[in-house]
C-alpha cells in the first residue's frame, strides 16, 4: 500500500520560513517524479513544484520561484519543500504527490499539511 505522509506545516509570520517533508512508503521512490501542490480555501488545487527522479531537474510555479526549493533524498524516500519569504497568500493545504510519468500525471497523493502565514 502506497503512503505519502506530509509533515512540517504550521503557523508562521509573513517573511518566515517552513520546511515541509513528505515521507513515501510502498513504492520504489526513485522511480517517481515527486511534486508539491497546494489548495487555498475556495480555490482549485495548483502546482507548486516538481523534482524528477534523480533530483537534478526541478520545476517551479512562477509565484514561488526564488522563494521555495524542492529537493529529495532517495535514500530516505523523502521529498522536501523549503519555503522562505512566506507571504499570506501562500496560506493553503500543501500536498505531495508521486507520478511515474515525469510529472505529466500523478498517481498517489498525500493527505496534506496546513500552512498558515499571518500578516
H and E string? EEEEEEEEEEE
From the alpha-carbon coordinates, what is the Rg to the nearest angstrom? Answer: 13 Å
Number of helices: 0
**Helical fraction:** under 10%
Number of strands: 11
| Average predicted confidence as pLDDT | 96
Uncertain stretches? none
| Residue share in β-strands | over 45%
Q: Largest beta sheet, briefly?
A: 7 strands, mixed
Shape: globular
In whole angstroms, how far apart are the ends? 40 Å
Backbone structural class: mainly beta
SSE topology sketch:
Layout: E1 3-7, E2 10-13, E3 18-25, E4 33-39, E5 46-51, E6 58-60, E7 68-73, E8 78-83, E9 92-99, E10 108-109, E11 113-118
Parallel strand pairs: 2-11
Antiparallel strand pairs: 1-3, 3-8, 4-5, 4-9, 5-6, 7-8, 9-10, 9-11
Describe it for me?
- This protein is mostly beta strands and 119 residues long.
- The strands form 2 sheets. Strands 2, 4, 5, 6, 9, 10 and 11 form a 7-stranded mixed β-sheet that branches. The chain has a 4-stranded antiparallel β-sheet with strand order 1-3-8-7, with no helix packed on it.
- The radius of gyration is 13 Å and the shape is globular.
- The termini are far apart.
- The model has no long low-confidence stretch (mean pLDDT 96).
Keywords:
four-stranded antiparallel beta sheet; 51% strand; single chain
Short description:
The chain is mostly beta strands. It has strands at 3-7, 10-13, 18-25, 33-39, 46-51, 58-60, 68-73, 78-83, 92-99, 108-109, 113-118.
